[in-house]
Amino acid sequence: MPDVCSPRLLIETLAVGDELLRGETLDSNASYLQAALLRAGLRVARGAIVPDDEDTLASELSRAADRANVVVVSGGLGPTVDDRTAAAAARAFGRTLVCDEASLERMRGLFASRGYPFTPNNEKPAWVPNGARVIENPVGSAPAFVLDTGRAQLYFLPGVPREYRVLADRVVVPEIAALREGVVARALVLHTIGTTESRVDQLLRGVDFGDVRLSTRVDGPETNVILVAEGSTAGAAEDALARAATHAREALGPLVYGEGDATLASTLGEALAARGVTIAVAESCTGGLVSAAITDVPGASRYFSCGVVAYANDAKTAMCDVPPELIKNHGAVSEAVVRALARGIRARCGTDVGVGVTGIAGPTGATDDKPVGLVHFAAIAGVREVHRRVVFPPGRERVRKFAARVALAVALESLRSGDEPSERPHERAGDLARAARMGPPEPSGETP
Amino acid sequence: MPDVCSPRLLIETLAVGDELLRGETLDSNASYLQAALLRAGLRVARGAIVPDDEDTLASELSRAADRANVVVVSGGLGPTVDDRTAAAAARAFGRTLVCDEASLERMRGLFASRGYPFTPNNEKPAWVPNGARVIENPVGSAPAFVLDTGRAQLYFLPGVPREYRVLADRVVVPEIAALREGVVARALVLHTIGTTESRVDQLLRGVDFGDVRLSTRVDGPETNVILVAEGSTAGAAEDALARAATHAREALGPLVYGEGDATLASTLGEALAARGVTIAVAESCTGGLVSAAITDVPGASRYFSCGVVAYANDAKTAMCDVPPELIKNHGAVSEAVVRALARGIRARCGTDVGVGVTGIAGPTGATDDKPVGLVHFAAIAGVREVHRRVVFPPGRERVRKFAARVALAVALESLRSGDEPSERPHERAGDLARAARMGPPEPSGETP
């Protein structure tokens, strides 16, 4: 991915907590902030994880403040003896700890309203370094705070992800973005499925995006396109972004399935709900992951009727009415059987749309002409049937996960192809297979 | 969790890669190593993530080598221009880069066997700092290497998780463990489900574990017990560990479902396979996650026949033969319906074991007497039926994930209760409900 970000501000993250060093918890806060900053056109230069140790933390804080313009610290703001971040910050920057009366009152009220006793140690989160700007925590008790050392701004946020994320979105990211004087950044992610990253890149290459920076990112069988626009005002940045997004959508056509927070499952759900139709799924190698993805969306009961995980051949016949001779003649992993699964589950459940998936997740089950990773997909909506055959790279977990996403894309295609003429279906099928073969992004090019 | 680890060795991790600073990829390698070291009685003192920048990396490396005894570096060993770790290491420790001929030959052979052209840039991973000990990479092309600065040992591993993990397990963890002269550590994890962490703690409190250190860790609805034994020889450590494990199993009784790498799904799979029986699942609020968990285990087709995600009430009747009047009289989320689901799916699929799950994942669907988070479970094996009712804390994703695991535990219980007399089933049901209400571990006590 080309560098899309301005290097003007040096931003670091510091996560505090023994549990982040014992293999128990991944530091998802830093990753969340990185992604949010990237959407604002900003990049994190460095991240560190340190234990709940006041000495270590104080020296990390002063070093980070020497290096960076902004340091975002998470964790260690709670009431227990393990929570030492405020004390370490006070020591690192030569401050005393003072009690923020407003926070104390707020915490007392919060505890009273929940019927918890307010013991003396609960006062601790209200004690912040002298001169700190306190930020009220709308979803928890411990307040966040900001220290300005003259050279660096240090944000101290709670480590609880729910609290961290709300404060990052509402306070930290907007404030950091505002530090770049006179520049407002806006970003948008377009989600594509059905081709490779290099094909997306190629399709976008001839387009004039002006000053809007563009990058791509592989996410399983999908490729995301990230657009970052900057302007002197929010309006200017938003206008530039909207123009760029329109051009990108024109160039990519039906490869784009959604933008922003959309997922394949939420997009499929919206498409079903908008048409007032229902869906049923018959899956084999994906083992329940297609149904699980569809029902992961709140309110899925409006359109999802039933899923069958027809693992055994008998179950394909008993539960989805696949004729046994079809399995005998073509094998369970075949176009004939996947079409029968989609038709059978639709008829059984009386839904408008039926989806079928059958394949070989591995490690065993391959034959001479059917490799591990071979998966057939079918979706039937109205009179329209879509069939796809993809060979995924081996790896049971990856085959199952990728296939579940491709199944959603095929279901979406069957719905949308009813709305508009299908565009080069053969080329798209080939692209899909190529995209699938690409596999997920690997952190580096260390394998040939 | 009390500190279980000896602080004698100071170990740090350093992950290299721009993608780890853009919110795209979480550094799962460091977390993997942390957990593996913890099992060997060792702890990581600090972790950092740095970009693919030679200057930054060189200064990070020399600072880490000044502070720590062991530094484990991941990423940046590949053939592209972004891969700068070896060059940075050479600069940091005043070495030149030299070509390791054995690695070069191995890579040429690997490329030839896969039919890839060996272009000049592919030589790059064979160039390592002078004096480095090269470690062959059994699952990739780029070799790993170790630098000894006199004060610190620095391990340089590929960032690709599959390669990192193999090298961590086979080389890094055993070598680090051996650095503690005269002390051999062995560790074991016991997995429990069916009660709270505090109850597990209470049950273990009266037991004499000698010098074996013990800690607990909450993992969703499960509580893990970690035992770490040290001795002057491997045999002594293993003997002490085995004695402690026996005592812990005696104290915890049927709460322990497995140890080591066992999961609920693998344990259930083994129990089914050992008895030569088959299983079918009818689930509602879990939306396919129970079937997905069972089929996540390679070879699940030996015992898993079919799953139905009976989301709509009509589907419960049409696919699992739940009498409509049962749903009308008791509601879809009820003991009567969950028992009917388990019996119905077993009869339909002709399996030995049937499992039913129905509940309210939220955010909507609650009634006056049925809150969000209420889930009923049933499992039927032979003539034995188990029913459980649990109210999970709200949160759609958590309810679905926790309920899927509890369903596996209930299925396992139905099988095992055929083998031995059931132990205080009422108490265990209460414990299970309490454990479920506990929710997942939060990183710190920052909310009341």
Q: Structural class of the secondary structure composition of chain A?
A: alpha/beta
Largest sheet properties of chain A:
6 strands, mixed
Spatial separation of the terminal alpha carbons of chain A: 19 Å
Number of helices of chain A: 14
Assess the beta-strand content of chain A as a share of residues.
15-25%
Oligomeric assembly: homodimer
Shape of chain A: elongated
| Helicity range of chain A | 25-40%
Unreliable segments of chain A (pLDDT under 50, ≥5 consecutive)? 1-7, 420-448
Annotation, overall tally of beta strands of chain A: 17
Summarize this entry quickly.
By secondary structure, the first copy, chain A, is α/β, with parallel strands linked by helices. Helix content of chain A is 40%, strand content 23%. Chain A has 14 helices and 17 strands.
3D structure, described in words:
- The structure is a homodimer of 448-residue chains.
- Chain A is of the alpha/beta class and 448 residues long.
- Chain A is 40% helix and 23% strand.
- The first copy, chain A, has helices at 28-39, 54-67, 85-92, 101-114, 161-179, 197-205, 234-252, 264-275, 289-295, 313-320, 324-330, 335-349, 396-416, 425-438; strands at 11-16, 44-50, 70-74, 97-99, 127-129, 133-135, 144-148, 153-157, 184-193, 213-219, 222-231, 256-259, 279-283, 304-310, 353-359, 374-381, 384-391.
- In chain A, the strands form four sheets. Chain A has a six-stranded mixed β-sheet with strand order 2-1-3-8-7-6, with helices on both faces. A five-stranded mixed β-sheet of chain A has the order 14-13-15-16-17, sandwiched between helices. In chain A, strands 10-11-9-12 form a four-stranded antiparallel β-sheet.
- In chain A, a hairpin with a 4-residue loop joins β7 (144-148) and β8.
- In chain A, α1 (28-39) runs parallel beside α5 (161-179) and α9 (289-295) crosses α13 (396-416).
- Chains A and B meet through α1, β2, α4, α9 and β14 of A and α1, β2, α4, α9 and β14 of B.
- β2 of chain A pairs antiparallel with β2 of chain B.
